[in-house]
Structures are given as structure tokens and as C-alpha cells.
Amino acid sequence: MSLKGKTALVTGSTSGIGLAYARALAAVGVNVVINGFGKPEDIEKERSSIEADFGVTAGYDGADMTKHEQIAAMVEAAAPDILICNAGIQHVSPIEEFPPEKWEAVIAINLSSAFYAMRAAIPIMKARKWGRIVCTASAHSKTASPFKSAYVSAKHGLAGLVKTAALETATDGITVNAISPGYVWTPLVEHQIPDTMKARNMTREQVLHDVLLAGQPTKEFVTSEQVAALAVYLCGDDAKAITGANLSIDGGWTA
Ligand code: NAD
Questions:
Q1: Residue 214 counted as domain residue
Q2: How many CA atoms within 13 Å lie on the side-chain side of 160?
Q3: How many domains does one find in the chain?
Q4: How many Cα atoms are found within 13 Å in the side-chain-facing hemisphere of 78?
Q5: Is the pLDDT of residue 215 over 90?
Q6: Mean pLDDT computed over every residue of the chain
Q7: Example GO molecular function term (predicted)?
Q8: How far is the CA of 139 from the centre of ligand 1 (A)?
Q9: Ligand 1 centroid, distance to 87 Cα (angstroms)
Q10: Which member of 116, 151, 183, 233 is catalytic?
């Protein structure tokens, strides 16, 4: 079945993996609504280039993923057939020094926002007897890492939420899955390097090679486009029997 003419809402899609999801879905004819923060001129440039490159409509909603009322209003306005829960942030710090406001923000954006988006989207999808929900989890939904307590907890929680939502919607034509990438070179990874250097007493080179790439047996970063291609597959009809899964795309990390 073609995805042409469906509508996707991609949270956290003004950069990195989210933007790749939006472009990959647009490339198969899906109208997209992007979301996230950034300079208005940069966001407009990305939005209009999706429309120009793929001949679909691309909207933008700046809902803050820490605010459940804004998330619900965004989902209701977009009325998506496809919901990609992707917004995420990272904070690196030992537990005893972890600022409470950072813990709250990481849990809110990486975990609670997906719950609130699903809560609003599932009734819309149930009424249509069709829906696809894909959440960007992480290799950290299956493994831990020192100094990333909030992120590891949020992503493990997200994996549980995906399984629960899949069971609740299994007879409604809706699938709910997680994708768990290894390291993808995006602003999120770049921004964690200084705190990782401090927490592990390492140089930038050591963090790159001994922390980021060392965990991936392929010794290569995963690309945003590879992750996005997996999401497009999960949205297609060939994947309709896949629900409640948490698919690794991590260069062998979790093996
Ligand atoms: P990124 O920093 O490029 O993108 C994050 C997006 O989330 C941006 O669009 C940003 O504006 C948005 N965002 C952040 N806070 C927000 C808020 N309060 N409200 C709305 N939007 C907000 O990072 P990325 O690496 O592309 O991350 C995307 C997802 O992929 C995240 O969930 C992340 O945990 C996950 N992930 C990333 C990697 C990696 O190595 N980059 C690996 C595994 C999982």
C-alpha cells in the first residue's frame, strides 16, 4: 500500500534524525508536519525545501515537548496517520551531581512527550482503523552507560511505553514500534562531548574513539538516512505484522 497522501507528524524534526525522517517520508509522498526549536529562518528553509524537493505539503508546529497541552493541540491540529516520536535531549553528569531540572527535562522530552503525543494520536488513528507510530529510542533503551542516568532511564521507559501501546492498539490497524540507533553524528551527540570529557577525564579524541565509536563493532557512525529508511519501512504495508518491536540499528553495539 502506498503512503502517498498520508500525513506524518515528526516531533523534534528541525535537525538530525528527525529532519531525515521528515525528508524520507516526504520522498514517498507523505505530507509532513515538522516540530522543534531553531532559528525561524532555518526552520522555514528546511520546511520549504521539503515542499520544493518532494511536492508534498510541509507544515511547522513549534509545540514545546515539555508541555502536554501544546503536544495535544499540535497532534489534534495535524491529525496524523503517522506519528514519529523523536524529540530528545541528552545530559551527561554523575548521578550525585545531576541537576534535578536536567533530570526532569530529559524525562519530559524523551519519554513523557511520546506518551502525550500517543495519547492524542491513538483516538484519531483508531477512528481511521490505520496508524503508524514510531519512536526513536536508542541503544540506551537496551544498555546503560555511566553518567547518562536520565537518558538511559527515559529510553528504557520509552521501550516499555512502545510495547504497551502496541498491545493496546493491535486490533485497530495501528502498529507501534521503536527504533534504537547507535551513535549518529548530530547536534545531540556533539553537545555531549564537553560534559563527557569532564565526567570521564578524557580528551575529545578519546571520547570520539574510546566512548562513541568503541561501542560500535563496525567502528562507524550510523547515519540519519539509514535510521529514516527503517522508519519508512515500518510505516509501509510490508511491516504491518511488526508491532511492539524495538529494532536496533547500531552497528552491532547491542550484540
Ligand atoms: P538533535 O539535537 O539533532 O535533534 C533533537 C530535536 O529535538 C531537535 O529538532 C530539537 O529542536 C528538538 N527538541 C529538543 N527539545 C525540544 C522541546 N522541548 N520541544 C520540541 N522539540 C525539542 O538530535 P538527534 O540526535 O537527531 O536526536 C533525535 C532523537 O534520536 C532523540 O530522541 C535522541 O535521543 C535519539 N537518538 C540519537 C542518537 C544519536 O547518536 N544522535 C542515538 C540514539 C537515539
A1: no
A2: 8
A3: 1
A4: 36
A5: no
A6: 97
A7: 3-hydroxybutyrate dehydrogenase activity
A8: 14
A9: 5
A10: 151
What H or E segment, with its residue span, contains residue 165? helix 149-169
User: Measuring CA to CA, which residue among 227, 143, 149, 157 is closest to residue 185?
Assistant: 227
151 has catalytic annotation: yes
ipTM of the complex: 0.99
List, in sequence order, every beta strand (DSSP E) within the chain.
7-10, 31-35, 58-61, 82-85, 131-136, 174-181, 246-249
What CATH number did the domain enclosing 24 receive?
3.40.50.720
Nearest residue CA, atom 3 of ligand 1?
A: 16
Tens digits of per-residue pLDDT, 78-119?
999 999 999 999 999 999 999 999 999 999 999 999 999 999
What is the CA(89)–ligand 1 centre distance, in A? Answer: 5
Q: Max alpha carbon distance in the chain (Å)? A: 53
Which atom of ligand 1 is nearest the CA belonging to 17? Answer: 26
Task: Evaluate if residue 73 carries a pLDDT over 90.
Answer: yes
User: What domain range is 135 assigned to?
Assistant: 7-183+222-249
The three-state secondary structure class of 94 is coil
Whether residue 1 is predicted with pLDDT greater than 80 in this model: the reply is no
Cα 87 to Cα 95: distance, rounded to the nearest angstrom = 23
- pTM (2 d.p.): 0.97
Residue 231 within any structural domain of the chain: yes
Q: Give CA–CA dist 217/171, Å, rounded.
A: 38
